[in-house]
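W.,

You were right to be curious about this one. When I first looked at the sequence I had no strong expectations either way, so I just let the prediction run and decided to look at it fresh. Below is the sequence, 272 residues in total, followed by the output.
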Amino acid sequence: MSNNLLAGKKGIIFGALDDQSIAWKVAEHCVAAGAKITLTNAPVAFRFGKINELAEKLNAKTIPADATKMEDLENLLTESMEALGGKIDFVLHSIGMSFNVRKNKAYTDSNYDYMHKTFDVSAMSFHRLMQSMWKLDAINEGGSIMALTYIAAQRTFPDYGEMAESKALLESYARSFGYHFGVSKKVRVNTISQSPTWTTAGSGVKGFKEFFNYADKMSPLGNASAESCADYCVSMFSDLTRMVTMQNLYHDGGFSNMGMSPALIDVAEDQA
């Protein structure tokens, strides 16, 4: 979709791994809307992902950065401003990993070193990114900072592990730093709570297929796709949403407001 909503804007997209990634779609849609971007991910992701293919397609510079290290983020911001010719207008934080889930540890038998790493990678990295932007004065007035989250921050999904707490912390950072950025530079900070989405990371969660189908039936509009999430991100990066900040925005086909769905009752009756 090409609409020039982001014409003249400069952005940084975190987390594009392969063409299943939401961040990958966001990068494509931002460039189609007229933006210039840089792409970043953890150094290890450059070895097994396809980010360089996306960079070539979009004529975007890639800058490896470990989001748990301030020096890496400061270097990312400095190099991005040099490559793009000025301060940043928008950023997407699309980073998340549960080390306990990855190691098949039950929530009731969590390894706390793993948990701390999960919080560091998945949530504290967001605060670290914003603090780096603040100290370097790296974002333009009226800019937009977004992070991807999930409704497990508010509701219980047993197999989601400590990622639920990570997302709750992520959303809190958006509100807290959103205040300071808003007062100082009219910069917006928000989170998007996305539907279950077929990504490399999401599909690795135990029972993901069954839950994906459940959420699709529960949601009046069905699950929101990565493509539609990218469209939503473009609108949040644009000037059309310049008065929206400190919000957790549900992009889930209505799932978040549902109590029950006749479609699920019909399935249960068919299986009875």
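Here's what jumped out at me. Residues 10-271 form a domain with the Rossmann fold fold (CATH 3.40.50.720). And, maybe more interesting for your project: The chain has one domain: 10-271.

Coffee later to discuss?

I.
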